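Field reference: sequence -> structure
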Amino acid sequence: MDPATYDAWYRTPRGSWIGEVEYRLLYRMLAPSPGDSLLDVGCGTGYFTRRFAQDAGLCVTGLDPDRDGLDYARAHGGPNEVYIAGDARDLPFPDAGFDFVVSVTALCFIQDQRRALQEIARVARKRFLLGLLNRHSMLYRQKGRGGGTGAYHGAHWHAISEVHDLLRNLAVRDALVRTAVFVPSAGAIARVLERLAPNFLPWGAFIAVAGSPCPDEPSRGISAP
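Structure field:
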């Protein structure tokens, strides 16, 4: 899928609603302040990168190996956005180089997820946040089975138990897992259920995983789901 077509999905009624639900959850879990620095690992066309820069007032850097996606992100970015080519498994930044690091569904397409997660935690000073696809969700039954369709083709869909395993040997504190997008149709019923369903339920299509790096201490575990 070319970058323009991919990014245009976020301007459709369904894509706009899903993107907004996911962004609001990410923002609440990070709780950043204007002027904080943020790295978006696997930024793609820069949808979430732009949101954090333009809506939250952060100084953002987007990193991705796809140069076509980066060209699109640069063409549509603002003054507080920088986009560079790079590999999530070998981030070209110093330890604790950013206040926050996010990676929205990029790990779903990376084979060595543990290495990428170690790098994400290494360069985060305050907190890191992952967005993953939930295997135990309605969206998986619609788009994920049999190798996935459309933009989900080839994606790894995580179970909540896998999330716990990913963080188990990583030195983090205040780890938190939440989900969103329980009914991905974006219709009236989906919107009502999204407002009523608590984010600690384990069935949302979008899994958000947050933690604060603590390199000198063992992992302290994860708050449910």
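Note: Residues 13-30 form the longest helix (18 residues).
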